[in-house]
From TrEMBL:
GO biological process, one term: lipopolysaccharide core region biosynthetic process
Gene Ontology MF annotations: Kdo transferase activity
Active site residues per record: 319 (proton acceptor)
Enzyme kind, highest EC tier: transferase
Protein's recorded name: 3-deoxy-D-manno-octulosonic acid transferase
Residues of the DUF374 domain: 80-150
The protein's annotated pathway: Bacterial outer membrane biogenesis; LPS core biosynthesis
Role, per record: Involved in lipopolysaccharide (LPS) biosynthesis. Catalyzes the transfer of 3-deoxy-D-manno-octulosonate (Kdo) residue(s) from CMP-Kdo to lipid IV(A), the tetraacyldisaccharide-1,4'-bisphosphate precursor of lipid A.
PANTHER family: 3-DEOXY-D-MANNO-OCTULOSONIC ACID TRANSFERASE, MITOCHONDRIAL-RELATED, 3-DEOXY-MANNO-OCTULOSONATE CYTIDYLYLTRANSFERASE
Keywords, in A-Z order: Transferase
Site entry (Transition state stabilizer), positions: 390, 466
Superkingdom field: Bacteria
One annotated Gene Ontology cellular component of this protein: plasma membrane
Length: 676
């Protein structure tokens, strides 16, 4: 009996899904093959397209409800940031309508006017609609819905507009179709016909109230007459000119592609069967954690919990470090939310586990940009907002977030000269990605200009989050132990080194030792997994990752541990930043100079710093550029010989590196303003 009931329920659900799908396909086909004329009042246009975040209550009679997606398809291409919610009743028919239009990014608020002592969700819906209007979202409502009487306005529209302090835009429509035998005589469109939308001037609620007007009419009666007038205007032949103050345009609605790149979408889908083998190959290289590799395909490995969730994504170690203050600021400002942080690399995941242990923070690996995997990821985690970092631009994931009305923001936005040239060659894809960001906060004015040229439409103040991070943490007990063990030695650190420059650092170390026999050079590779090979290459020098300490005779010490830069920067009085010397195999680009600067280190670097050009330019008074092992050795000897000069250089960069201390709090407010 139980199985029979379950089977019956499954059949009903399948029949309902089939009905919803069929209705959606037909309605979309009919509306998009209709030749539409839009008669829009010039004052209503910026409200209907939500220009500069403007919102309004959009009101229309219940009978034209099936036609209104055409208005949305007209408005959305004019502003990719536009958001819409429609009040739809909680009954069975209302839920079916909501399911039909949801894939078109028309989101519903469930409820209708309470009547006869029955709670139909009217009060809760009113609160949600007010919150939506105040958060840059249009709200559509049928004044005579959901059960009529036909063309008799209820009080809900007026109450909502007054409560939110927003104007009302009235809409009328008609098209080639049939009238259903329902209480509202609903218009159902037929394909390949003609249709007209008419949108009235906005009604400013500050200039209207419910007092009796001229002729004894109430505001509700005036609303009814104005809506009837819009229906009459929509029924006028398209050959007739529109009234003064109205623009008229004929539009052919084509299906709206919400994914920034169809080519990218298809390519990722086609390649997806081979990607698991690629991930297994990465496992053999130590670049994936075997027990968590399925996260890269969108499968969760942690429980989500019931709280609302903000999603932050940072690709690697540098980006992860930069967003930690921002994550903490959001957690402090929104105590009822949890945070999901995704990274692309294992080292970033390990660093996050060391730096941020918080009961409301969950880490997962970012799924590869395959549509099916992205859907699986979003279905499970259901973020209320997404925050990407620096240059993380993934067309499929951005498109999926856009289809689900998830606001996406870009912090510390970075666009190097080479990346800018590359994206210019794919200008349409870049524009469709960047215009989908709710806002972009660029790392520098130069980055902001490049992002704007590529298509970013709303840019906040610029500011580098890497200048806002707190000093790197340290194990005080371990610091004291090492200071005691290494007492009497002059310490120089070469950090974030890459292949092709470590030999030059070793050569410089030998030159320094001629004048300072007590020198110890810490070689800290960017990728700790290279530690063993690096030790062999440098002559079997001791490795911290193997628990080895340098003796008095050791010149070099490979520090191949993760999350201990704060320790090494406090041990060393002067620092070289790697991936910057000519000859580096990765092509160079430099690394973040803010971390050693915040801890009072004198800094030098090679000339290849294009990835952090702005940071190095800002610190030009404190950072010395060297190009050879000889120049590096000369600089270190100078720092050892002149402590006052070394301190002055360190003070210069430290002031710059701590200038943006309140940037995370400011950005956190902008992030939370997108959540409602």
């Amino acid at each position: 009996m139980i199985m029979l009931r379950a089977l019956k329920t499954d059949c009903k659900n399948m029949a309902r899904k089939a009905g919803v799908w069929s209705l959606r396909q037909y309605l979309g086909f009919a509306l998009k093959t209709t030749r539409w004329t839009f008669r829009v009042n010039e004052q209503a246009w910026p409200l209907l397209t939500s220009q500069n975040g403007q919102t309004a209550v959009v009101a229309f009679w219940h009978e034209i409800l099936p036609l209104t997606p055409a208005l949305w398809w007209w408005a959305e291409p004019q502003n990719p940031h536009i958001r819409l919610r429609v009040l739809i009743s909680r009954n069975r028919d209302g839920r079916m309508i909501a399911d039909v239009v949801a894939p078109w990014r028309i989101w519903s608020i469930a409820g209708s006017s309470d009547s006869k002592g029955k709670n139909k969700g009217g009060a809760a819906a009113l609160r949600r609609m007010r919150a939506s209007l105040r958060n840059a979202t249009l709200v559509a409502i049928t004044p005579d819905g959901p059960r009529g009487p036909r063309r008799q306005a209820q009080q809900g529209t007026l109450a909502l507009a007054k409560l939110a302090g927003k104007p009302i835009v009235l809409v009328g429509a008609t098209c080639t179709g049939i009238r259903l035998k329902t209480w509202d005589k609903m218009i159902f469109p037929l394909p390949f016909g003609h249709g007209t939308m008419a949108c009235a001037p906005p009604i400013d609620m500050q200039r209207h109230n419910q007092e009796e007007g001229s002729g004894g009419e109430t505001f509700t009666q005036k609303l009814e007459h104005a809506l009837d007038n819009m229906m009459h205007l929509a029924q006028q032949p398209s050959s007739m000119s529109s009234p003064a103050g109205y623009s008229q345009e004929k539009v052919a609605l084509s299906p709206l592609s919400l994914m920034p790149s169809r080519v990218w979408q298809v390519a990722a889908t086609v390649l997806s069967p081979a990607l698991p083998f690629f991930l297994r190959w990465r496992q053999t290289k130590g670049k994936e954690i075997p027990s968590r590799v399925r996260e890269k395909m969108g499968f969760p490995s942690r429980s989500r919990g019931n709280a609302n969730l903000i999603w932050f994504h940072a690709a690697s170690v540098g980006e992860t470090v930069s967003i930690l203050p921002l994550v903490c600021a959001c957690l402090a400002q929104k105590t009822d939310f949890q945070v999901l942080v995704t990274t692309g690399t294992v080292t970033a995941a390990r660093l996050l586990a060391q730096r941020l242990t918080h009961p409301r923070v969950v880490h997962q690996f970012m799924p590869l940009d395959v549509p099916r995997w992205g859907k699986r990821f979003l279905d499970y985690w259901q973020p209320k907002a997404a925050v990407f970092t620096e240059s993380e631009l993934w067309p499929n994931m951005l498109g999926l977030c856009h289809t689900r009305n998830i606001p996406v923001m870009l912090v510390n936005g970075r666009m190097s000269a080479s990346s800018f040239k590359g994206w210019q060659r794919m200008g349409r894809v870049a524009r469709r990605m960047l215009e989908r960001f709710a806002w972009v906060s660029a790392r520098s004015d130069e980055d902001a200009q490049r992002l704007k040229q590529l298509g970013a439409t709303k840019l906040l103040e610029t500011g580098d989050l890497k200048t806002a991070a707190p000093p790197l943490p340290v194990d005080e007990a371990e610091l004291a132990r090492l200071k005691e063990r290494l007492a009497g030695r002059r310490i120089f650190a070469a950090v974030s080194t890459h292949q092709g420059e470590e030999q030059q650092i070793a050569q410089a170390a030998k030159l320094i030792r001629r004048d300072y026999p007590d020198v110890l050079v810490l070689v800290i590779p960017r990728h700790p997994e290279r530690g063993a090979d690096l030790s062999v290459m440098l002559g079997y020098v001791p490795r911290r990752g193997a628990g080895q300490m340098p003796t008095e005779d050791d010149l070099l010490w490979v520090c191949d541990t993760l999350g201990e830069l704060g320790l090494f920067f406090r041990l060393a009085s002067c620092v070289f930043i790697g991936n910057s010397l000519p000859g580096v195999l990765d092509g160079g680009g430099g690394h973040n100079p803010y971390e050693p600067a915040r801890l009072g280190c004198a800094i030098t670097s090679g000339p290849l710093v294009q990835n952090f050009a702005d940071a190095f330019a800002h610190m030009a008074t404190g950072i010395t550029i060297v190009s050879t092992a000889q120049e590096l050795a000369a600089w270190v000897r100078d720092m050892f010989a002149n402590p006052g000069k070394r301190q002055q250089l360190a003070d210069n960069v430290q002031r710059i590196a701590t200038a943006n201390a309140n940037l995370p709090e400011r950005l956190a407010k902008h992030i939370l303003a997108q959540i409602w």
